[in-house]
Amino acid sequence: MSTKRRVPWLLTPGPLTTSAATKEAMGRDWGSRDADFIAMNRRVRDRLVAIAGGEGSHVAVPVQGSGTFAVEAVLGTLVPDGVKALVLINGAYGRRMARILEIMGRAYVTLETPEDTPPAAAEVDAALAADPALTHVAVVHCETTSGILNPIAEIAEVVARRRRRLIIDAMSTFGALPLDAREVPFDAAVASANKCLEGAPGMGFAIVGKEALATSRGNAHSLSLDLFDQWTAMEGNGQWRFTPPTHVVAALDAALDQLDAEGGVAARGARYAANCRVLTEGMRGLGFHTLLPDALQAPTIVTFLTPADAAFRFEEFYAALAGRGYLIYPGKLTKADSFRIGCMGALGEPEMRGVVAAVAEVVGEMGVTRTAPG
Ligand SMILES: *Cc1c(COP(=O)(O)O)cnc(C)c1O
Prior knowledge:
Layout: E1 9-10, H1 20-24, H2 35-51, E2 58-64, H3 67-78, E3 84-89, H4 92-104, E4 107-112, H5 121-130, E5 134-140, E6 142-143, E7 148-149, H6 152-161, E8 165-169, E9 188-192, E10 203-209, H7 210-214, H8 227-237, H9 246-262, H10 264-285, E11 301-305, H11 314-323, E12 326-327, E13 329-330, E14 338-342, H12 349-366
Parallel strand pairs: 1-12, 3-4, 3-5, 5-8, 8-9
Antiparallel strand pairs: 2-10, 6-7, 9-10, 11-14, 13-14
Helix pairs in contact: 2-9, 3-4, 5-6, 9-10, 10-12, 11-12
């Protein structure tokens, strides 16, 4: 039974549902120069590095703003004028990295595959072999546009073998899917507080190789998004250069406690995988089709193809689900009509069963009989 909930569950690509403990952690003010805040900030940064297996080799540098701010800071700081990046695109977030480089006037080429097709490591290998001027490769771990999982380990292996540098947008995987710098070599992995880490929105961060960061002085196109400057200032006095999102840092610290208590990345990934399974099986049981085969699906957000039935109108479907306490998301595919239902955030199987039950009620009310795509 789907019961109405006053604050809706966020079954979206972000921001996501947070736990009561995470929200409670935001209930006090912090002085940005206070020793307690500085210690908390240090602790959060160390924990983020540990999640990525980067102790000794990498540092965590936080950036105010949404995840895109951190992606822009990394590209602007690590891909200087005079080098050339290869951007792998199979959705909106890969395209966004190319757009960022374009606006900054940095040199790049793209390797694009359809939204339901991961980039092949062999093609990356061939592209790098063909153009010695390429110094960096930028790739999205899970393209949240579709929910597709890109083969990050294989791509990292090729990039390392060709002695190029890898930048990973790990926004919608960090904390739920393993990414270990000792096994998957990268210069930077970028994520934010409010996806799989289940903190509050308002800050992004990058896990950056020390050597890559230390040689990036003066590269950045921007003052506020200069990751080198943010890092050296923070190492110097423990403080953020500009007003820190204090409540968001506190929420992330609490959220990281909960990640530990849950059993770390493996346990969180297992919960999301169970969420994804309940959602996908439930929706298939109602006749819906997923865009992706299960083998390509990340356990974070699922794209469903829009039913062929003319009685199905997304706006009406969305509003009726919202009225039952479930916020879903429109599709973002360029080719097929679709919608998305997320399974990350502070959610479990009851919420997944709940949204499936709500979908069943709503399609019944709308008079949709054919839920398969055209
Ligand atoms: C959410 C997300 C981002 C960042 O989006 P913001 O709206 O700026 O937080 C970047 N890349 C991927 C893959 C994402 O899922």
